[in-house]
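User: Please work through this fold.
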Amino acid sequence: MEISRIIDLCMYTLPTLVTGIIAYYFFKEHTKNEDGRRRFLLKKDLQVHAMPLRLQAYERMVLFLERITPSKLLIRVTPTSEDKDLYEDLLIRTIEQEFEHNLSQQIYVSDKCWSILVTSKNATIQLIRKASMLEKTDSANKLREVVLTEMMERHAPTDAALAFIKEEVKSLW
């Protein structure tokens, strides 16, 4: 009699355990799926709100690059005297101020993009410094002429950064 009772108990317990294990895994997978869905919806919602900010940051970075392009910078920033060193300092200070004005935009662009922007800014400053060091550069107007001549012979340092930004924005879509 004892053995038949144990067998009966196992006959009732085994299906209950199997049903319980199946229910456990089903609810575990369901909860995992729901959590993933919630995260996806949250991320999607954040992207809807963040996308305009990111695009605005890219627009500001393009504007920054356009403003520090040597040919445009030299037209916009005129020398206050004939001293080439003062004009060189004025140009570099203008570039640095433009950069500092846009520092906060780095949180919206990729690290690679920001690195390229910084490199472009530094290359532009270096171009102005090298032009100022040439022997033929003896005045502020001559500095302008030398830099503009240099820009006719090769691409501006900002061109590569502009191309990179355009490609990065295309990849957002």
User: Anything to note?
Assistant: The two ends are 75 Å apart (CA to CA).
